[in-house]
Each structure stands twice: as structure tokens, then as C-alpha cells.
Design goal:
The chain is of the alpha/beta class and 252 residues long. It has 11 helices and 10 strands. The chain has a 6-stranded mixed beta sheet with strand order 1-2-3-5-7-10, sandwiched between helices. A 4-stranded mixed beta sheet has the order 4-6-8-9. Strand 1 and strand 2 form a beta hairpin. It is globular, with a radius of gyration of 18 Å.
Amino acid sequence: MTDSILFSQTGHVCHLLLNCPEQHNALGREQLDGIQRALDQIENDPEVRVLLLTGAGEKTFCAGASLRELDASNADAAGFQLMTARVARLTVPTICAVNGDLYGGGVELAASCDMRIGVRGSRMRVPAAELGLCYPLEGIYRFLECLGPALTRRILMGAEEFDADGMLKIGFLDHLVERADLERRAQEMTQRLVALAPLAVSAMKQIIRQAGEYSVDPAMAQTLFRQCLESDDFQEGLAAKREKRPPIFTAR
């Protein structure tokens, strides 16, 4: 793939590693392209039965979209949303081994997986409202399908932070383990899924996903998203984050 995205396959299990811990495994164009190529291989290989996704390092699973590449010209998240949508729509089950903190789009990426296992001491937060950014429609679908409306409001509208126990309590994490046990527990989960009937697992996954989808006016959602994306507040939110100061929003 690329040095920052590592992909391998062992038997029926594919492993996808976000491998840029010095940048908190943030995803820019290079990383998104690498993940897309990995998804191409998974979709074209009938032998694959499970995808295991995790991040390198002990601090952060994924910090979402790279702030260095984020501005009004390319932050419409089309590439990011296409990637997470493909992860969510894979016919094989997906497990996310959340090795550390997760922020922004990193939360969405984990939510796109079918099952999540996390480590004690980790935190989760989506700061879109702090940046003056309306979260994209596809991403909102992911949160609604994973957690429902009430928790989606707390995560997106309230930019609420959850610790590891909180993530387990609200159902974002299916399992919570000590860091030393993460790899072993993730392997146990993958092997259990590999042992199940792949057609049945795939069929039920697709039905569950379709049952969890919501219907809204995409044109209206896109208009609101673009308004936020092109606003002064979005630029102010980015500047404040980079300068490590409180933002001053003007609703323009």
C-alpha cells in the first residue's frame, strides 16, 4: 500500500494498519488512497472473511482527517466519506481494535466497523462543532446507525468527550481490555468470525445495515454542509485549533 498504511492477509483474515503514529494516524490523501487500494483487494478476493483494522502506537488510533490538508477547497470530505462508506458496506465483517485515543473522523472510521474493542485509558471526541464544521451526511449516517440519535447529538452537536469506560457504557465499544490484551482479544474475535458460515454472516450484515439506514433530503444536507464549509467560522475554528487558542465565531 504505502508506508503509512500497511495491509496484509493471513488465511481468511485481512489486517489493515494505520501506520503514522507520529501524526496520530491522521488520514490525508496518501493514506486514504492506500486504504482504498486495500479495500479493492478485499472486495475482489472471495477468500476474505474478516477485516481487522487497528492503528500503530500506543497513543492514538486515528485523529481523523489531516489538519494540514484541511481547508475549504478540499475539506468536503468526499474522499474520507467514500472510504468510510466502503468500510461500512464491505460484505465481510469488520473488527476495529482501537489501540488509543480517537478523534473526529477517526471516531467515524471506528463506527464504520461492525465490532470494536478498545483499551483502558483511551478517549473519544468529535470536535466538528468547535471548528464551525457541519459533519458530512454520510458520517452522520454512520453515527446514527452505530449509536442512535440521542448519543449522536451528544457526540456531534455537544462535542462531548468519552473516556474508555464511557465508550463501553454507551455501546460504542463492544469490549474493553488492558492494552497488553488487545492483540490477543482481537485475534480471538477474528478467529471466531472466521469459523462462522461466511454467507450467513454476510447476509445478516447487509440486512442489519439496510435496516439501520435513515432517509433525509441529501440536497438540503449538502447545502447546509457547504454553507458551514465556506463560512468564516470554519476558517476561524481551524485557525484557533492550530494556534491553540479559544475560537471567536461570528456566524458568517
